[in-house]
Design goal:
A: about 550 residues; mainly alpha; 2 domains; globular; B: about 220 residues; 8 helices; about 0% strand
Chain lengths: ~550, ~220
């Protein structure tokens, strides 16, 4: 059909592409249920992603990838024009890096280009600053699929090339590059997820963090594979792939939920939400499940991959040279900080947005989710349960993928069994309940009010106390003071925007000024320019012959 | 044969000298005179080449050059100067000394380029070509270092003289090429003359620096 002349379009499915197709399928169904069924661009977007996964040759892969970029650009444009333009620039940059990389022979240059192209599309630091702008812009279903699916497709390209296609030329430092970029993404993403006031932007920042976690896992595996460490390779890959699966379930769930919050209350600012758990109990419960995954709480879907990842990094820190030990220890610290910040972000979303008292009339009058989005969220939530409770089984299913990526990798059994843990916890809860009903105090007892953390309302507040609760910005203030100002700058600006986009913008301004100067040149100046070029050419000719 | 060489070189040298001297002249009248003498020597060179190569076309070229560039164009230029009352100093964009140093450098470059790259050819052609290239480059330089439109036209015409000089030195150059170049120059002169009238009507001067300022500000 399409394809290079003489080659045609080759399709090929193997374990890796099937795994990513399985990640993609539920969120596509969910996004379609959440109201994107009628959009042609949405289905083209899905088609592009599927084509990338099913590609059997480089051209088909890049064709599908660019189809995905173009369609998602159209979808972002439906939301807002400015982020769409930014996004288009990043997509073009990523295409410009990937297209030469795909036709280069296996070499370090090809890997660097793939890492730049796919990393920019996946939102790896330092090329991540488009993601918190572009992902929240379109309707919720598209945001869900972009955050849960498109980012995974970019990582799929990275995995496919890093582990399979470019394997003959692999170097240990490829993994180091991925780990450094991943650690930076974890730190910046998690920190911004705590600080952002807009719900969807906070979720997009959390996506940056999870992409960073996956990249760290991939980096550990890639480095270990090049060094010939079978156990570490297996652990890193298990962590990365399991994280991709889990993130592909709970992040679309959260995004669709955020869309419903917007539909019900008309705002996404945490400073105007609050108390939604009362008006939207079903949505609140599902969001709680998603937030548990996002925070990597034990018994949630996000815990097992984080556990494996920390396991892998601790094991890596125990061996190797002094530099490697120091580096992995620092990585461990960054991952720990990222996990703590992710927990803070999840607590903030649930605690500020869904608990407490409503901060506006709209939040007070919110009604529960509509039928379609609710079914979509319920589907994703239901799929989260086996991922959360049976990660060992899932890892067993993934073994062929790991064999494909690293043929001699070990797949050590998971030492974390959430199902038995859950049974134990249930037993403990039952026992506690029994003790309480058997020996507890019966009847109600009046106690003086503790105000639940509320201060006394000033007389001039029409709503009374809701505005004396801590707001979204207020909750984040301690983190902003301790870490945010130091890492992100005084205005909470992203360092990537400050150090990457700022100079780019200045360079572009300078180039425009130069172009304008050339455009305004008088005839004499233009003549002089051509003349100087001619003379230089003649000079080069003469000197070349003379010498 | 040696007389052919030395006369051709002598005339080429005079043409180059005229082209170079144009750089040093502030007054339009002097530039026109230099241009006229350049064209006259060029027509003599063409006639001499026609005699040496036994080529009828070169005689024709010489006659056309004599009539067109030796008489008609200088007369037209003087007419413009008279009508516009421009018998005064020409504003230059570069100081005279600097532009003359540039001119010397350009001649050096032309020699540097042409002499090594044409070693296989006849020496007559080689040196003539070096001189012709120098005249072309000097004409271009003249167009750049002057602000006055008329001086720029003289630079353009002088450049075209260099082209003709290269053409007549080359044995076997078709006549139609020279003829069409001459025609083109005449047409260009007419068009530019009309332009000059229009510029004069609008701005009361032929000094283009005012227009440059307007361009800078206005766009």
């Amino acid at each position: 059909m399409f394809g290079l002349p003489g080659h045609g379009m080759q399709l090929h499915l193997d374990a890796l592409s099937i795994l990513f197709a399985c990640i993609l399928l539920p969120q596509t169904v969910a996004a379609a249920l959440a109201g994107m069924r009628g959009s042609i661009a949405f289905w083209v977007f899905v088609l592009g992603m599927a084509l990338t996964l099913a590609a059997g040759d480089g051209f088909t892969l890049i064709f599908g990838f660019e189809l995905m970029s173009a369609a998602s650009w159209l979808l972002v444009m439906q939301g807002d024009v400015k982020p769409a333009t930014f996004y288009a620039g990043v997509a073009i940059f990523s295409g410009a890096c990937l297209i030469p990389a795909i036709f280069l022979p296996a070499s370090s240059l090809a890997f660097v280009l793939v890492a730049l192209g796919a990393g920019a599309k996946a939102g790896l630091a330092p090329l991540h600053s488009w993601l918190p702008r572009a992902h929240p812009a379109p309707p919720a279903g598209v945001s869900a699929l972009m955050s849960g699916g498109m980012v995974k497709i970019a990582l799929y390209v990275l995995i496919r090339y890093g582990f399979v296609v470019l394997a003959p030329a692999q170097q240990p430092w490829w993994g180091t590059v991925l780990m450094v970029a991943g650690a930076a993404s974890v730190l910046v993403g998690a920190l911004r997820a705590v600080l952002e006031v807009d719900l969807k932007t906070a979720l997009a920042c959390s996506t940056v963090e999870h992409v960073g976690l996956i990249a760290v896992g991939l980096g550990v595996a890639l480095r270990a594979k090049a060094l010939g460490d079978a156990t570490l390779t297996g652990l890193g890959l298990e962590a990365a792939l399991l994280c991709a699966v889990a993130h592909g379930l709970f992040k679309p769930l959260l995004f669709i939920g955020a869309g419903e919050v917007k539909h019900a209350t008309g705002t996404l600012s945490l400073n105007w939400l609050g108390g939604l758990m009362r008006g939207m109990p079903r949505l609140g419960a599902l969001m709680l499940l998603g937030a548990a995954g996002m925070a990597a709480l034990p018994l949630g879907p996000g815990f097992a991959p984080e556990f494996l990842l920390l396991h892998a990094v601790i094991q890596a820190a125990a061996g190797g040279g002094i530099l490697a030990r120091i580096g992995f220890s620092a990585l461990l610290a960054v991952l720990g900080l990222g996990a703590a910040l992710a927990l803070a972000a999840a607590v903030r979303i649930i605690g500020i947005g869904f608990l407490g008292r409503p901060r506006s009339l709209h939040a007070a009058a919110a009604e529960d989710a509509r039928r379609g989005p609710f079914i979509a969220m319920a589907l994703l939530g239901a799929l989260c349960v086996p991922v959360a409770l049976l990660p060992g089984l899932l890892l067993g299913v993934m073994t062929p993928v790991i064999r494909l990526l690293a043929p001699d990798a070990d797949t050590p059994p998971l030492t974390y069994a959430p199902l038995s843990l859950l049974l134990l916890a249930l037993l403990a809860a039952l026992a506690a309940g029994f003790i309480q009903t058997r020996f507890g105090v019966r009847g109600l007892r009046e106690v003086p009010a503790w105000h639940g953390g509320f201060g006394r309302p000033p007389a001039w507040l029409p709503f009374g106390d809701p505005h004396t609760q801590p707001s979204g910005a207020g909750f984040a203030e301690p983190v902003a003071r301790v870490l945010g100002r130091g890492l992100l700058g005084a205005q909470g600006q992203d360092p990537s925007e400050h150090f990457l986009l700022g100079p780019l913008l200045r360079g572009q301004r300078r180039a425009v000024r130069l172009a304008e100067r050339v455009r305004r040149a008088t005839i004499r100046e233009r003549l002089a320019f051509v003349f100087a070029a001619l003379v230089l050419f003649l000079l080069a000719l003469g000197l070349g012959q003379g010498g | 044969m040696s007389l052919t060489f030395s006369l051709a070189h002598l005339m080429g040298g005079i043409i180059l000298l005229c082209g170079f001297l144009q750089l040093s002249q502030r007054r339009l009248a002097a530039m026109i005179t230099l241009y006229q003498s350049e064209a006259l020597v060029l027509s003599a060179a063409a006639l001499w080449q026609g005699f040496a190569q036994h080529e009828l076309a070169l005689y024709l070229t010489g006659l056309i050059t004599f009539a067109l560039k030796g008489l008609l164009l200088p007369w037209g230029l003087r007419e413009i100067v008279q009508r516009f009352g421009m018998i005064r100093a020409v504003e230059t964009a570069l100081p005279m000394a600097v532009s003359m140093i540039f001119g010397l450098a350009l001649i050096g470059i032309a020699v540097l380029v042409v002499l090594p790259s044409t070693e296989a050819s006849l020496s007559l052609t080689r040196e003539d070509l070096a001189i012709a290239l120098s005249v072309v480059l000097l004409g271009l330089l003249l167009m750049i270092v002057r602000r006055n439109a008329l001086a720029q036209i003289i630079g353009f015409l002088s450049m075209e003289n260099g082209l003709v000089l290269a053409a007549i030195g080359m044995p076997g150059m078709p006549f139609v090429a020279e003829f069409s170049v001459a025609l083109l120059v005449l047409l260009a002169f007419l068009v530019v003359g009309v332009f000059l009238l229009r510029i004069r009507e609008h701005f009361d001067t032929l000094d283009l620096s005012g227009i440059e300022q307007i361009e800078r500000r206005g766009r």
